[in-house]
Design a protein that fits this description.
Elements lengths: L2 E10 L4 E3 H5 L6 H8 L3 E3 L7 H16 L8 E5 L10 H9 L5 E5 L5 H14 L5 E9 L9 H4 L4 E11 L4 E9 L7 E2 L11 H5 L6 E2 L1 H22 L9 E4 L4 H11 L10 H4 L6 H11 L8 E8 L3 E8 L12 H30 L1
Parallel strand pairs: 4-5, 4-6, 11-12
Antiparallel strand pairs: 1-7, 2-3, 6-7, 8-13, 9-10, 12-13
Helix pairs in contact: 3-4, 8-9
This protein binds oxa(dethia)-CoA.
């Protein structure tokens, strides 16, 4: 049975930085409160033209370049997001087109902030089954588009960004070792975007009442998070046949520094075992774990052979954890040039669009 190794990774965040000081001029808050209660100092916010798929594609090109994998060698694209570009088509399909990954299946997965763990699990299981060889797993969010900038309970927390991993089949031990996934829909109303779906389609009334924004019971979500993060971490370490002392790094969902501190206390491990970057990006939901990992690889903390645990919680409610052995890229056979494939993908996409239009026109003319 092949293992699913993480052979490529990449992240993308918007250039625009929104600081706590700027938020002070927007809502009744202050830098001191935000830092003390959340650990966040700044977050990245998309500008016009930047979307969940543009961030995803930027992260994906980096991951493919790192793995030296051509887009048309991908078998599957899983895009985890709570802020898709549309209800449909799936953001994963937009990414598939922009990459020119013309042999890949593509779908979106929604498990909120736990989504990247769910998506990695699904991708790894598909590889472990032997049915496919390579998967692109993406976590991408543009939460700033769903935040009520007058609600101080939520607008200080969230940021935008994306992270992508390439998973590839490999007979050697390593990669994704175990995962645990949980949910409890009875807490669905604690964190939601109530309108815009089939229950409350967008209307003047839903917009007037702000139902298209993120609504959150922060205290309840906090309580739930502090309970489940350590619990899921312990569970997955057991499922992988490991002990906590075997784990080099724990990479938590970056929602609130106090939640991460509570998890460290619950696990009786020092906070230094956790990779934390919440101060610079805020809560980027499903993207927070891959972004933290990309930074830890870039600065040399995370090394080949390290055993790691990813742990997250989020809307749904969902929570889960995943244990992995970091492998790094496979030996380079040929160096991929992402810029070349980017141009090729654009041309192919253009050709496909033209062909569809032309076929439609011919069909219409024949019918007439
Ligand atoms: O990915 C999952 C997404 N969500 C989360 O992870 C959220 C989890 N929850 C949290 O992180 C925390 O509950 C928050 C950061 C949202 C809030 O922190 P808290 O320590 O739970 O504050 P609180 O809601 O208990 O509010 C304490 C006080 C309240 O004032 P009173 O009633 O004591 O007078 C709030 O009105 O702080 C006030 N407050 C603020 N003050 C300044 C709430 N938000 C702000 C703010 N600036 N932005």
């Amino acid at each position: 049975m092949p293992y699913a190794h993480i052979t490529g990774w990449g992240m993308a965040v918007p250039n625009r930085i929104l600081t706590n000081a700027e938020l002070e001029s927007m809502v009744a808050t202050n830098d001191e409160w935000i830092v003390a209660r959340t650990g966040i100092r700044e977050r990245r916010i998309v500008r016009a033209g930047e979307t969940s798929s543009t961030l995803a594609v930027e992260a994906a090109w980096k991951a493919l370049g790192c793995a030296n994998l051509k887009p048309n060698e991908l078998d599957l694209i899983i895009c985890s997001t709570s802020t898709p570009e549309h209800i449909f088509p799936a953001t994963a399909c937009l990414v598939q087109d922009k990459l020119g990954a013309n042999k890949a299946g593509a779908f979106d997965l929604l498990a909120a902030c736990t989504g990247f763990i769910y998506a990695l699990n699904m991708g790894a299981q598909a590889i472990r089954s032997g049915s496919i060889k390579s998967v692109l797993v993406i976590g991408t969010e543009t939460l700033s588009r769903f935040v009520n900038w007058q609600d101080r309970n939520t607008c200080i927390l969230f940021g935008d960004g994306a992270g992508a991993f390439v998973l590839q089949a490999n007979q050697e031990f390593g990669g994704i070792l175990a995962s645990v996934l949980h949910s409890d829909g009875s807490g669905g109303d604690l964190l939601s975007v109530p309108a815009g779906g089939s229950k409350h389609p967008a209307s003047e009334a839903t917009i007037r009442s702000g139902m298209h924004f993120i609504h959150m019971d922060g205290r309840e979500v906090f309580r739930f998070a502090t309970r489940v993060m350590a619990q899921a971490t312990r569970e997955v370490i057991g499922a992988a046949g490991l002990q906590i002392q075997d784990i080099r790094w724990i990479i938590p969902h970056q929602a609130n520094l106090r939640i991460i501190e509570a998890a460290a206390r619950g696990l009786k491990v020092p906070l230094e075992k956790f990779i934390i970057n919440i101060e610079r990006y805020g809560n980027t939901s499903t993207a927070s774990i891959p972004i933290a990992i990309c930074e830890a690889v870039a600065d040399g903390r995370l090394k080949a052979g390290d055993k790691i645990v990813l742990t997250a919680f989020g809307a749904g409610l969902t929570w889960g954890a995943l244990a992995a052995q970091w492998s790094g890229p496979l030996p380079v056979v040929r160096k991929l040039r992402p810029a070349f494939y980017r141009i090729l993908a654009r041309l192919r996409s253009l050709m496909r669009r033209l062909r569809l239009r032309l076929e439609g026109w011919i069909w219409g003319r024949d019918k007439a």
